[in-house]
Amino acid sequence: MSDADTPGRGDAPSPGRRTLPLLGPDAERTPRGGRAERADAARNRRRILAAAADLIAARGVGALSMDEVARAAGVGVGTVYRRFGDRAGLLYAVLDDRERRFQAAFLQGPPPLGPGAEPLDRVRAFLHALADRTDEQLDLLVMAEADSPDARFDDGSYEVYRTHLETLIARVRPSADAAYIADALLAPLAANLLRHQRRTRGMSLERVKAGLDDLVAGLAAP
C-alpha cells in the first residue's frame, strides 16, 4: 500500500472509545445523520476545540470543564454538550483534531515529512514528528491508551503509522522484515513510556529524538 492509498474513516466522536478520522487536511467532520456541517457549526467546532486544547495545555486534562471551554470559545455551554456529548467526548475530539492535522502532514504535506524526500529521511522525519505530536498531548494519549490493554493497537491511527513506516522501510531495505521493524520503531513512542521518560527520568525531547535517530541509522547499515 502506498502512502496515498492509506484508507480513511471518520464520524463524530462519541463519549466511548476514540475514533480517528484519518482524513486529508481540508476535510471536515460530517455529523451523525450524514448531512454536511453548516459553516457556523464548523466555526463553533473549531473554536471549541481550539479553546479546549489551549486550556489543557495551560492547566492539564484534570482541570478541564465544559463550562470553561464554552466561556473560552465564546459559545453557550449547551452548544458544547450538544456537539460533543460530555467531557470524555470533547477530550477525544481534541485528540482527533490534532491527529487529523498530523496525518495530513505526513501523507500529503511537504518533505521531508511528506512525499518527495528519500525514504530514510522520511522515516526519521516521521518519528521526530510523532515524538512531538505525542509529547504535545501526552496526558490525553495516556488516557486513551488506558482504555484497554490493546487500545493503542485498536486505534486506526496505529495502523496508519505502521503501514506508512512499513512502506518506507521496504524501500530502504527490501530484504528486511518491514512489518516487524515498523512496530519496533513505534514502540518507543507509546504515550506511557514517553511520559515516564520525560517526567520521571527527566529526558529531553531532543534526547528522545536522538535515540530514535540511532535506531533509524541501523536501517542504512550494510
UniProtKB/TrEMBL annotation:
Region (Disordered): 1-41
DNA-binding region(s), chain positions: 65-84
Keyword terms of this UniProt record: DNA-binding
Keyword Cell inner membrane tagged: no
Domain HTH tetR-type per the UniProt entry, residue ranges: 42-102
Top-level taxon of origin: Bacteria
Taxonomic lineage: Bacteria, Bacillati, Actinomycetota, Actinomycetes, Streptosporangiales
Protein name as it appears in the record: HTH tetR-type domain-containing protein
Record InterPro entries: Homeodomain-like_sf (IPR009057), HTH-type_TetR-like_transc_reg (IPR050109), HTH_TetR (IPR001647)
Composition-biased stretches (Basic and acidic residues): 26-41
SUPFAM superfamilies, per database record: Homeodomain-like (SSF46689)
Cited Gene3D superfamilies: Tetracycline Repressor, domain 2
Species assigned in the record: Actinomadura keratinilytica
